[in-house]
Design goal:
alpha+beta, Heat Shock Protein 90, 7-stranded mixed sheet, rod-shaped, disordered C terminus
Length: 370
């Protein structure tokens, strides 16, 4: 009976867990090893239990006879069955580990290939970036060079025009000379804008932070464009709001350049009505302030496509899309940790806000206390 029971246990163990082997579960090999150990354990447990409690139910001769019969009839089969299960389980476990090791080697090789490919792509991107930087630098150098070469003859034309204006000219000649001077001055302004934009693009602009009064800067821009506005019959005024009369620290030359371009566009595209500059200062932290120049006009405004481009301050835009003047303002604002907001007014015209982060100028009593 014991022989039959052990055989049934071995067969049931193999059949029951065969599906786990097909599924690739390593538990099948573990169960084979456990089944082999279980056969040995059951055999020796029965022998031990019978030797311990057998004398209580039978004579010592009967106990010894039963134990001897077990060892003579079933010991060999028990050893063979248990050893067979252990060997098969161990061999399958080794095969499984070997397959696992092969998979690991293949994955390692694939990972090494992928890393090599990523390294090649990184080198290509780095080389492409260096090439793009070299191209951008050469373009900037060319723009700077050609701008300088154009400025010299243009200044000569303007100077000779001024000298010619002091001579005796007919009315028609004076009109033609005035047109020539205006054209040369417009060309010189555009050449200067291209040079400034090239410097901003190449990062060659050095920030020079000094203390200045925001309202005085707006007033200086107003004085610069008042003759132009009066010639077109426009009302041009400034307003100083929200503690804007207190000095701040930043690069006032870059800020003036950006504000000049905004005001120039406002007057240029405003046939009638007015242009107004509002100067505001609000807090941006313990030591920082937001300096805002709001330029309003009653001009023709901008087309919807351009407004959509400028609607998102974080969206990169190209100079070809927004023009050189706005591109300079855009880059100056980014350089000074600010932004430009452009919107069309419901009643007509535009509202352009140049917002720049500046540093507080300490009050005299603050310096004395420190």
């Amino acid at each position: 009976m014991f022989y039959i029971a052990v055989t049934i246990i071995a067969i049931v163990s193999l059949v029951r867990y065969a599906q786990n082997s097909r599924a690739g579960n390593i538990g099948f090999e573990i169960r084979l090893l456990c089944a082999g150990l279980a056969i040995w354990t059951v055999f020796h447990a029965i022998d031990f239990i019978w030797l311990v409690i057998g004398p209580a139910f039978s004579s010592p001769e009967a106990v010894a006879a039963f134990s001897e019969r077990m060892h003579s009839d079933y010991r060999l089969f028990t050893d063979l069955a248990a050893t067979g299960l252990l060997v098969v389980g161990f061999l399958r476990l080794l095969a499984r580990f070997r397959a696992l090791y092969s998979d690991m080697e293949r994955d390692a090789a694939d990972l090494a290939d992928e890393l090599g490919s990523n390294r090649e792509n990184e080198d290509q991107l780095l080389a492409s970036e260096q090439t793009q930087r070299a191209i951008a630098k050469s373009k900037t150098d060319f723009l700077v060079s050609i701008s300088h070469e154009l400025r010299t003859p243009l200044n000569g034309i303007i100077g000779l025009g001024n000298l010619l204006a002091n001579t005796e000219l007919t009315k028609e000649q004076a009109k033609l000379l005035s047109t020539l001077e205006q054209s040369a001055q417009a060309m010189l302004t555009r050449v200067s804008d291209v040079l400034d934009l090239a410097r901003l693009q190449s990062g060659q602009t050095d920030l020079r932070s000094v203390a200045f009064h925001p309202c005085d800067l707006a007033t200086s821009v107003q004085a610069l464009f008042t003759p132009f506005a009066n010639k077109k019959g426009l009302s041009f005024e400034t307003a100083c709001l929200d503690n804007a009369d207190r000095p701040v620290i930043s690069d006032h030359l870059l800020i003036k350049q950006a504000l000049t371009n905004i005001v120039s566009n406002a007057i240029k595209y405003t046939p009638t009505g007015h242009v107004k500059i509002e100067t505001r200062v609000r807090s941006a932290g313990s030591e920082r302030l937001w300096l805002e120049y709001v330029v309003e006009d009653t001009g023709v405004g901008m087309d919807d496509e351009l407004l959509e481009l400028l609607a998102d301050p974080d969206k990169p835009v190209s100079e070809a899309e927004i023009g050189v003047g706005l591109a300079i303002c855009w880059r100056v604002a980014k350089l000074l940790e600010g932004h430009i907001d452009v919107e069309a007014k419901p009643e007509g015209g535009m509202r352009v806000c140049l917002a720049i982060q500046v540093q507080r100028e300490p009050k005299p009593e603050d310096d004395h206390d420190s």
